[in-house]
Design goal:
mainly alpha, two-stranded antiparallel sheet, two-stranded antiparallel ribbon
Length: 363
């Protein structure tokens, strides 16, 4: 399979890696065509009908662009013990950007922010997030496509960690998930000589932890928990403004060209020169504008509340073939193809229509 070029309304021609083409052709990714990026906001802004499908492709493109720019700049950096970025890591960034939103439910954040909390039990300590479903769907994709001609097992773990880092407890104690019987089998016998002991091979978790310590900046590209400057936001800021008809001054391609990997203390982080201050200020101001004029629009929030009410009513009576289990159990635990396909496509169109068609009279 060869690489393909698609034309994106925001970034122009985008070349997709053959592995990305295989992922895009799966049912799990194709369902993103039916998941609206902005939920019920399209009922206030008629042009905002774009989906998670094109946003995911745009994020993949920006992740690759930023990775290649940092790779080039690191190669020219004259400093001892500097990190590097391999071509395989560039591909991992591209795949992670492509798959980072796989787990979104219908109407995107409406589902996990408004609908799911209504069914949260008092004993549940951790709130469900769409990243949890993303990782499960990513496992399903890699079970059904050929990927070992480009990646290895540790690369798959690296991609998952780029999307969502594992819990700190699991990182520090990877042995908690081991089977006690397997641990007993690993113990050497008393008569075994030290020379005869096999050298312990590093586990996948240990390899990814080592990569995170040495190349912490790679985890700041898709989802930056340090300063919130990442390619995911760059794409949806630009795409949402374009589809909403809102003006913005932020130029993410300029930020990509000026991004550098700089050592801060013992760690390497993505940094920007002082001349980029006003451009990054425009980025955060664009975010503020989007929240003020669109994301938190009072009519849009009212629409989303009505859609949530429709979801709650559907949850009481809607069953799924073939297991006939209720929606919440099927979505959160099994994550079956039938569930995603049904809710991404049919529920968004049919179940909510009776509720939405009365908006003209209400507002």
């Amino acid at each position: 399979m060869e690489a393909k070029i698609i034309n994106d309304p925001i970034w122009g021609p985008i070349e997709l890696h053959p592995l990305c083409i295989r992922i895009i052709d799966t049912p799990q990714f194709q369902r993103l065509r039916y998941i609206k990026q902005l939920g019920g906001i399209s009922l206030v802004y008629p042009g905002a009908c774009h989906c998670r499908f094109e946003h995911s492709i745009g994020t993949s493109y920006l992740a690759r662009s930023l990775g290649l720019e940092l790779q080039k700049n690191l190669a020219m950096l004259d400093e001892p013990n500097k990190p590097d970025i391999t071509d395989k890591e560039i591909l991992c960034l591209e795949v992670a950007g492509l798959c980072h939103d796989l787990g979104h439910g219908p109407f995107s954040h409406l589902f996990d922010q408004l609908f799911i909390p209504k069914f949260k039990k008092p004993g549940d300590q951790k709130a469900w997030e769409h990243e949890d479903a993303t990782l499960n769907m990513l496992n399903s994709i890699f079970k059904n496509i050929t990927w070992n001609d480009y990646l290895e097992d540790e690369d798959i773990e690296f991609i998952k960690n780029l999307i969502k880092k594992p819990d700190e407890k699991e990182q520090k104690n990877p042995s908690l998930n081991e089977n006690p019987d397997e641990k007993e089998q690993k113990k050497p016998s008393l008569n075994e000589k030290p020379d005869e002991k096999e050298q312990k091979k590093p586990s996948l978790n240990e390899k990814t932890d080592e990569k995170e310590q040495k190349k912490h900046f790679l985890y700041e590209i898709i989802a930056n928990g340090l300063n919130k400057i990442d390619v995911d936001k760059w794409d949806y800021f630009s795409r949402d403004c374009h589809m909403l008809g809102l003006h913005h001054n932020f130029q993410c391609k300029r930020s990509i060209k000026l991004a550098r990997v700089v050592k801060h203390g013992k760690e390497w982080h993505i940094s920007y020169p002082k001349s980029e201050y006003y451009n990054l200020f425009d980025m955060f101001y664009t975010r503020y504008t989007l929240y003020r004029q669109a994301y938190h629009h009072p009519v849009a929030k009212a629409v989303e509340m009505m859609i949530t009410d429709a979801f709650v009513k559907a949850n009481k009576c809607l069953l799924f073939p073939p297991n006939k289990q209720r929606y919440q159990t099927c979505y959160l635990k099994h994550l079956s193809k039938n569930t995603y396909d049904f809710f991404g496509r049919k529920l968004e169109v049919e179940i909510c229509w009776d509720c939405i068609k009365n908006l003209a009279r209400v507002f």
